[in-house]
Amino acid sequence: MKIFLIGFMGSGKTTVGNLLAKKLNLHLIEMDEIILKKSGKKSISDIFSLKGEEYFRNLETETIKEISQLDNVVVSTGGGIIMKEANHKFLKKGKVIYLNTSFNVLENRLNGDDSRPLFKDIKGAKKLFDLRKNIYENVANQVVLTDNLTIDQVVNKIFKFL
Ligand code: S3P
Asked: What CA–CA distance (Å, rounded) separates 104 from 147?
């Protein structure tokens, strides 16, 4: 089994992925961690500022291509994975679950977090959010509205769907 969790920054992909992987006895893969290792940089922010977004996106595509060949994994993707159409065919090799969280909740959650270069400017982040939400929905096999759910409830919804 191969499960891809997609959704905007702060939607809980890593937290949910951790719990889901334990429940299903699968490995959790955190895409940003792999990209970071490949880049040799210290942080995602450093990759963006020193090498630029395009470099990051190319590493992201290389990474999802590799991961799409694995099995028995839950993959926590980066929020921008759906931006390149070339990535969609790799996502489609597994079950794609969209954690749909409203912008207000994300904004409160990520307030003061400076690890995400694309969430530093709220207006820019909202534009990205509006641009991406239909794409997440179109690529996903299952959409989970997370706003009023606990992590356990989100995991159980995904579990029932599989
Ligand atoms: C990004 C999301 C981040 C990270 C990078 C770009 C995006 O991952 O990949 O900062 O474009 O939405 P998270 O969704 O895990 O925060």
From this structure: 10
pLDDT in tens, 75-125: 999 999 999 999 999 999 999 999 999 999 999 999 888 899 999 999 999
CA distance 159 to 19: 11
Distance in Å, CA 107 to ligand 1 centroid: 14
Tokens 């400017």: give the residue.
121
Token pair listed for 89:
């065919």
Residues 6+ apart with CB under 8 A from 115: 43, 44, 45
- Quote the ligand 1 centre to 152 CA distance (angstroms): 23
Q: Are 144 and 72 in contact (CB under 8 A)?
A: no
- Residue position matching structure tokens 């028995």: 72
Atom 16 of ligand 1, nearest CA residue: 9
